[in-house]
Amino acid sequence: MNTSTLIGFLAGCLTTTAFVPQVLKVWKTKSTQDLSLGMWSVFCFGVFCWLIYGFMIEELPIILTNFITFLLAGIILIFKIKYK
């Protein structure tokens, strides 16, 4: 594995795990009042586009980390819609 792939995995892991505390807080409190539905929707779509891009260029760090980020952000988006 080359250095750029390792840095890609590191960057992806760090930015992906940053969502875990927010998911846990939303899950625990059932509150998404302070989160913008518009921003979260655009963010999820952007991450989905990164995921598609990762498949197109066949880059595993982009695919894996954006898949996990999409799941985590999607959970928050679902809670945002559900607990409106």
Shape: elongated
What is the percentage of strand-forming residues?
under 5%
Calculate the mean pLDDT score and round it.
92
The major pleated sheet works out as:
none
Q: How far apart are the first and last residues' alpha carbons, in Å?
A: 45 Å
Report the CATH topology name.
Answer: Monooxygenase
Q: Give the C-alpha Rg.
A: 14 Å
Find the structural class using helix and strand composition. Answer: mainly alpha
Helix coverage percent? over 70%
Got a strand count?
A: 0
What do these coordinates show?
Helix content is 82%, strand content 0%. It is mostly helical and 84 residues long. The chain contains four helices and no strands. Helix 3 (37-57) packs antiparallel against helix 4. It has one domain (3-82): Monooxygenase, CATH 1.20.1280.290. The chain is elongated and about 45 Å long. The model has no long low-confidence stretch (mean pLDDT 92).
List the helices and strands and how they pair.
Blueprint: H1 3-17, H2 20-29, H3 37-57, H4 60-82
Helix pairs in contact: 1-4, 2-4, 3-4
Please name the defining characteristics of this protein.
single chain; elongated; mainly alpha
Précis, in short:
This protein is mainly α. Helix content is 82%, strand content 0%.
